[in-house]
Design brief:
This protein is mainly α. The protein has 20 helices and no strands. The longest helix has 27 residues. The two termini are 33 Å apart.
């Protein structure tokens, strides 16, 4: 077992590519840095074209899943489904900011669980901003923070709740029954603790009253088709997960059928919805798959797998907590998508005990709530805020993330260990 030639060059290029994805200098789209990094690895002879092709091909199920989810989310956004959900929450709040905060959190949980965390960040955030304005909330920030934090806190309720779940488990995805047995309790703890800590930090801004007479948008035929498509997609994906099947094709098919049904109902051109989808996300993920493939060829994954096996053998009870805590911190320095890809490769090579695998997933999914750079969903949330003319600084988020994320991650990891024992 040894490191391959060119390992330093691969590490430097990979690090710069990931840094570009996170920082986005000059507001250059994230996917450009991932694709440039992958291309440089091939052009400089650090990764063969065949290996790069294998890296791209290994992400097929993830591409299909993301494409289907992005199409479903865009149709729902375009037809006003998220505006309806947010307005429903505002009306049910009956003038109470705390109740509106809790209802917004509940809607965020539902959207994250059944549409993935990226959908919560991208399409629920502007809807919540609009409702906060309509409800004349004293401060819209607490409700918008819900969209950021719940996107990660509820992202391992189901396999479909976060694309990172697919890259960590790959073709070893547990059946739905096994998934729920392993992650139902940790998910509940993550959701509840995140809510409580977020409420505690925002309680001063949730005083007074809000306007309850918020107009309830009426869904047209296209909106009803979108709602039906989302329900059908959720049922199909849950069935596919229960049967242990890939989730990519069912998700892509659900998105295509919903797109077609909405176009027929509204007698509109389906291409209009497709143009609004962020297809660059697929290029971003493909580039990251190639970068991770290059890292695998260096032998670093093998070393990491051996270290994981050693930790599991030396301290079986403490290893999930230690590894989970370290990965939760590291994901905020590297972003959870590339780290999730790499962690999935290490887990596949090491085949550690179930408690460590589950701790890795919790760290990759929930750990990013510490900082704005932790997950793609949080980065997308910041972009959505800017479109609304709002901002939330990285330092301010970090101070809040320490209070909210640290206890949530710690208690969830403890639940994983106790459940496995």
């Amino acid at each position: 077992m040894h490191l391959s030639d060119g390992v330093i060059e691969i590490l430097v290029i990979s690090g710069l590519a990931v840094a570009g994805v996170i920082v986005r200098p000059l507001r250059v789209p994230e996917w450009i840095f991932a694709v440039l990094g992958a291309g440089l690895l091939v052009v400089l002879g650090l990764l063969s074209p065949a290996e790069a092709a294998l890296g791209v091909a290994s992400g097929t199920d993830v591409y299909l899943f993301l494409a289907g989810m992005m199409v479903l989310a865009e149709i729902a956004r375009r037809e006003g489904l998220f505006d309806c959900l947010a307005a429903f929450a505002a009306r049910r709040a009956r003038g109470s900011p705390v109740r509106l905060f809790a209802l917004t959190y509940g809607v965020g949980v539902l959207v994250t669980v059944f549409l993935s965390n990226d959908a919560t960040a991208v399409v629920l955030t502007p809807a919540v901003a609009a409702v906060a304005r309509a409800a004349r909330a004293k401060d819209p920030v607490p409700y918008l923070l819900v969209c950021a934090f719940v996107a990660n806190a509820a992202s391992f309720v189901l396999p479909i709740s976060n694309p990172a779940n697919l890259v960590i488990f790959g073709d070893r995805m547990p059946s739905l029954a096994d998934w729920l047995a392993r992650f139902a309790l940790p998910s509940l703890i993550a959701i509840v603790v995140t809510f409580l800590m977020l409420w505690l930090t925002q309680r001063r801004a949730l005083k007074g009253t809000v306007e309850s007479d918020v107009g309830q948008p009426v869904l047209g035929r296209g909106g009803k088709v979108a709602a039906a498509g989302l329900v059908l997609a959720a049922l199909v994906l849950i069935a596919a997960s229960a049967l242990g099947r890939d989730l990519g094709w069912p998700t892509a098919a659900a998105g295509a059928l919903t797109l077609l049904g909405g176009a027929i109902a509204e007698r509109s051109n389906p291409l209009h919805a497709l143009r609004r989808v962020s297809w660059g996300t697929l290029l971003l993920v493909a580039g990251l798959f190639v970068i991770v493939r290059a890292l695998e060829t260096t032998g670093l994954v093998t070393y990491a797998a051996v270290a994981m096996q050693f930790a599991a053998g030396a301290a079986p009870d403490l290893a999930p907590l230690g590894l989970g805590g370290a990965l939760a911190l590291l994901t905020n320095l590297t972003n959870n998508l590339p780290l999730g890809l790499l962690a999935g490769s290490v887990v596949a090579a090491a085949r550690p005990p179930q408690a460590i695998v589950d701790a890795v997933l919790v760290a990759i999914d929930l750990g990013p709530n510490l900082s704005v750079t932790g997950s793609l969903a949080t980065i997308l949330w910041l972009t959505a805020l800017r479109r609304e003319g709002l901002s939330f600084g990285a330092w301010r988020f970090l101070k809040l993330g320490v209070v909210v994320a640290v206890p949530a991650v710690a208690l969830t990891l403890v639940a994983v260990v106790l459940q496995a024992g």
